[in-house]
Design brief:
With 285 residues, this protein is of the alpha+beta class. It has a single domain, classed as Jelly Rolls (Sandwich). Helices cover 22% and strands 21% of the residues. The chain has six helices and 14 strands. The model has no long low-confidence stretch (mean pLDDT 92).
């Protein structure tokens, strides 16, 4: 799928983009069936593990699934979509032609509240030598104002890197008083199922609670340009290059003038973003 120049210019100016009708109905049907299988499996775990992130009190009788970790490594249906031309063609336009897989996750919004994500920048979690990175959100179900859609602050990808630490420890979120009334300008990324949202790695974003009766799954794929290399993190080089979808391997990093703060020290216990941000919220209360 191609992008119009107007869409590319909008993304470059605002740091986000919504594109409709990217995922076809047949693929959506398979995704939903696969997700249902994982939701059922999650009811058998008592606490978070290598696959599932669950909230305290999760049980088969009262499921509180918040995330499937690295879904592309858990099932070929997710992996196929992350590598599909329908998605990667769009990403390539916005990353200058080369594309490497960074990571994936599948977030849920349990009905009746919970799983709120505080304001943050993905860049704080995984800085690179340049900021040609983005995240694609695949809307498996309709994203509406009621079910906790992604919210973004336009243009913040060209602004500062905010402090995501609290009391000297990486918290994965920004203290509310650091943003002032800027969040009043938040844009809700709502669209029908089969659409995708795209946000730049430095764009400020958050999501509220789900007041609807659905679980609002959002499948997230993060991508990077091939010449963007991680800061303060190493990989097996062959495995790192195996994640290239467009372009050729290189050992030459493109370094640009971007703000970097490493996400360390990490909180004790290496909790999820939900747990770490809860500590930030408690500290701010």
């Amino acid at each position: 799928m191609s992008l119009k120049q107007q869409q590319i210019d909008f993304y470059k100016s605002n740091g986000y983009l919504v594109v409709k009708d990217v995922v076809d109905p047949a693929t959506l049907g398979r995704l939903r069936a696969t997700i249902d299988e994982f939701v059922e499996r999650s009811k058998q775990v008592a606490e978070s593990d290598d696959v599932f992130d669950v909230a305290p009190g999760h049980s088969a009788a009262s499921p509180k699934l918040r995330r499937i970790k690295q879904p592309t490594q858990q099932h070929p249906e997710f992996d196929a979509l992350m590598r599909s031309p329908a998605v990667v063609d769009i990403v390539a336009y916005l990353l200058g032609g080369t594309v490497r897989i960074e990571h994936s996750k599948l977030n849920f919004k349990p009905p009746g509240g919970g799983a709120k994500i505080e304001w943050h920048q993905d860049w704080a979690f995984y800085p690179h030598t340049n900021d040609d990175l983005l995240a694609v959100g695949v809307m498996v179900e309709d994203c509406t104002p009621e079910n906790g859609p992604l919210n973004v602050l336009a243009g913040t990808h060209r602004g500062p890197l905010y402090d995501h630490h609290d009391q000297g420890v990486f918290a994965g979120g920004i203290r509310p008083d650091a943003l002032g009334d800027a969040t009043d300008q938040a844009v809700e990324l709502t669209a029908p199922a089969g659409s995708i949202s795209i946000h730049h790695v430095r764009t400020l974003h958050a999501s509220g609670e789900n007041t609807s009766t659905s679980t609002r799954p959002l499948l997230l794929f993060a991508y990077a340009a091939v010449d963007a290399f991680p800061v303060f993190k190493t990989y097996d080089f062959d495995e790192f290059n195996s994640r290239i979808l467009r372009g050729e391997p290189t050992v030459t990093a493109r370094i640009t003038d971007v703000p970097v703060r490493v996400p360390h020290p990490w909180p004790e216990g290496e909790g999820s973003i939900f747990d770490n941000q809860a500590k930030l919220s408690a500290a701010a209360a």
